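SAMPLE LOG
Freezer: B-3
Tube label: C17
Construct: single chain, 128 aa
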Amino acid sequence: MAQVFASEIDADACSTECLHPEAIEPLLGRSLGADGARAVGELFATLAHPSRARIVHLLAITGQDLCVCDIALVLGMSVSALSHQLRFLRERGAVERRKGGRMAYYRLVDDHLRDLVLGAATHVAEGA
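STRUCTURE (predicted):
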């Protein structure tokens, strides 16, 4: 498993080189390390394409599984283009697929991604 957070920095070194050691001490070992930063960057890269952002946002606001045909209809996309983007999202762990007969249903992998996308949409809507 990759190390998400940076390893703890020597507190002695920080206290002699830092202007505010009392502010820095609680942060030691909590900032993103190289692996964590790479994973966060990859998540944002996954959402960087407008079509993928729309798909993930739709799945976030519905809170339920949606079939490919329904997603395509709501977003005004061809099933082929949508399937390509859904495969990309699935390969990167953003969505899960469930087969029901000949139908494929998709949902977000977890509430963390839902909260991230809904928060971003609110941020944009508020003009921040």
